[in-house]
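Q: Please design a sequence for this.
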């Protein structure tokens, strides 16, 4: 199938063609015609398969076919994402594909000043991309009107639930007109997602183009067993000996990300860290430097796993395995995107053997293992409990102050049932 067969306008097809695309991905081929018909859609596909264009292209088509009245430009489409990076990525796609349309778009998220966003909203926008916390701040300050929304998109809905955004989503739904088209896109289909869909969508069409929690076929996965204290040494060795030029490395904690980036710099590798405690400006610069090749290694926490879209990223490394197996899928999904090949390596110490078994059980396969000469683990070392990180999906156990997941959640605005006004007073970034 070609994009020209999906019923999209010549102006949209022109913008798509300029990006080098002629054939839609499976999720795009299935979703676009359904969205164009005005149907509610519950769509799931593994990360990196083009879900963003799957809702962006038909949304642009619908809005451009019914332009606003002269002098009146209400927000007609709302895209809600869990993270700032993902919001920026979606906005970039909207602007790219609306190049030849008279459709205005804007993005609002926390971590930056609100006044420039207010000015943009006052000038009138058709499509608004937002993170939940900052969107509620605007609603509380009455700097936007959501009463004329025609299309609502919840992007990476599973991540939003995982980050505790469900109360915010409920507040947002109360601000929207009851009659609207709803699109829920997700990398995974958990029971919680289906429960949310039941309450949100109206007789939705279900699209699932890949088995749940599968990883892209083009990603070569490998496990290297190594002692915990020698992980950084092995990582530097792999990057140098294999001449990896662009490597995304995941740690469990923000402190661990900072420490590893500093150590890699001491090893002679250009490296930056990106996580929830970094300012938006610092995160944007680190990501831009990484994409441009100025930084060879980008060290990230799981908070960034969903929002990083890097063309042809060749290497992802799990410096530490995630506590929740599903996060492994999202981490390594940063490579092998849009049909490209990629490699995902995991450095696994004795403490993480159970986490590895959980991942293999989720994927229903045994990941290939490879020993690196000189880095075989010491068999006399016994496993120790892993204290940091999330213990289980949905159920949060008490953890020491300063824990990575809790702190990241505060910074990103996943706020449970607290009021938007209360959090705006405290000045937390979202």
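A: Design:
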């Amino acid at each position: 199938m070609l994009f020209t067969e999906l019923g999209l306008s010549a102006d949209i097809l022109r913008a798509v063609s300029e990006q080098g695309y002629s054939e839609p991905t499976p999720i795009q081929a299935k979703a676009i015609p359904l969205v164009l018909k005005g149907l509610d859609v519950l769509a799931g596909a593994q990360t990196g398969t083009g879900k963003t264009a799957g809702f962006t292209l038909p949304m642009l088509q619908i809005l451009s076919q019914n332009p606003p009245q002269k002098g009146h430009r209400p927000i007609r489409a709302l895209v809600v994402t869990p993270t700032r990076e993902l919001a920026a990525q979606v906005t970039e796609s909207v602007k790219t594909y609306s190049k030849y349309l008279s459709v205005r778009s804007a993005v609002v998220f926390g971590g930056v000043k609100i006044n420039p966003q207010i000015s943009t909203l006052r000038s009138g926008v058709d499509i608004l991309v937002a993170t939940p916390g900052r969107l509620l701040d605007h609603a509380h300050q009455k700097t936007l009107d959501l009463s004329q929304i025609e299309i609502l998109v919840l992007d990476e809905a599973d991540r939003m639930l995982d980050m505790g955004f469900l109360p915010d989503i409920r507040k947002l739904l109360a601000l929207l007109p009851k009659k609207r088209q709803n699109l829920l896109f997700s990398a995974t289909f958990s029971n919680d997602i289906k429960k949310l869909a039941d309450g949100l969508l109206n007789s939705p069409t279900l699209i699932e183009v890949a088995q749940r929690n599968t990883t892209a076929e083009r990603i070569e996965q490998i496990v290297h067993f190594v002692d915990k204290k020698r992980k950084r040494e092995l990582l530097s060795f792999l990057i140098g000996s294999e001449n990896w030029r662009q490597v995304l490395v995941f740690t469990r904690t923000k402190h661990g990300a900072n420490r590893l980036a500093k150590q890699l710099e001491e090893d002679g590798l250009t490296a930056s860290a990106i996580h929830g405690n970094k300012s938006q400006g610092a995160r944007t610069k680190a990501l831009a430097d990484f994409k441009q090749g100025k930084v060879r290694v980008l060290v990230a926490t799981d908070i960034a796993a969903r929002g990083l879209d890097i063309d042809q990223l060749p290497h992802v490394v799990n410096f530490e395995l995630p506590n929740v197996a599903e996060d492994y899928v999202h981490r390594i999904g940063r490579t092998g995107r849009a049909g490209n090949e990629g490699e995902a390596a995991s450095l696994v110490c004795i403490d993480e053997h159970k986490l590895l078994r959980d991942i293999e059980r989720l994927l229903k396969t045994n990941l290939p293992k490879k020993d690196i000469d000189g880095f075989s683990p010491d068999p006399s070392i016994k496993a120790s409990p892993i204290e940091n990180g999330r213990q289980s999906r949905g159920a949060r156990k008490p953890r020491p102050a300063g824990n990575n997941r809790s702190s990241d959640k505060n910074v990103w605005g996943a706020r449970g049932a607290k009021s938007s006004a209360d959090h705006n007073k405290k000045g937390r970034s979202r």
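Q: Thanks. Anything notable?
A: The chain has 16 helices and 13 strands. The domain at 219-390 is CATH 3.40.50.300 (Rossmann fold).
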